Description:
This protein is an alpha/beta fold. It has a single domain (59-234), classed as Collagenase (Catalytic Domain). Helix content is 20%, strand content 13%. The protein contains five helices and eight strands. Strands 3, 4, 5, 6, 7 and 8 form a six-stranded mixed sheet that branches. The protein has a two-stranded antiparallel ribbon with strand order 1-2. The longest helix has 16 residues, at 179-194.
Amino acid sequence: MALGVVFFLLTECGAPAAVSRVEPPPPTPEPAEVSRAGARPPAPKAASPPRLVKAKRPVKVPDRGSGRYRVVAGGAAPRKGRGAAVRYQVEVEGGLPFSPQEFAASVHATLNDPRSWGRFRRVDHGPTRLSVALTSPLTTDAQCLPLRTGGELSCWNGRRSVINAVRWARGVESYRGDLTAYRQYVINHEVGHGLGHHHVGCPGRGRPAPVMVQQSKSLESCLPNPWPYPSAGER
């Protein structure tokens, strides 16, 4: 099979518009009682128009970072359980507007959720099985060659789960503004490739999409699902 085809099979695949939230107007005051002297108190002032609350602006991600990764220092233990833990590291490209420690914490919490792939130990030195790397759009394009990511997609490039920083900042429309769930999906999907899992299709309309469906591109009539084993959280 041609190399380009192999890489095409290992990619995930725009962003929900920010919606302003409108606070409800204050309740209409009840009619005032007549005083014993027969006079009514002054009429209440007219209610002020509802105040518009601006939605939080999405983080502005530069098209290109420094092109160099830095391993997030320190480590984190795997969740309790049997079996060997997967050793991995977290990398963040320089020049991105995200805290490396916060990104590493999000990745570790996702991978060690009972609904994820297994047990993961984060380290800052080798040997490791894989890395999860937060990456600017243009560096993602370079890292994922010969796959064409178009500045928007993420991929597994044989060494790294390359997480496109634009996706990390904005998510995708199909997740309907649930950025946390989308971030969990993209981590689990790309790490899934690193563990040897390949793309699958939607098993049926209205069913949860398997995590190896390319949910960033299409849910294929399934429902969003960020987890390999979603029912594990119900035990």
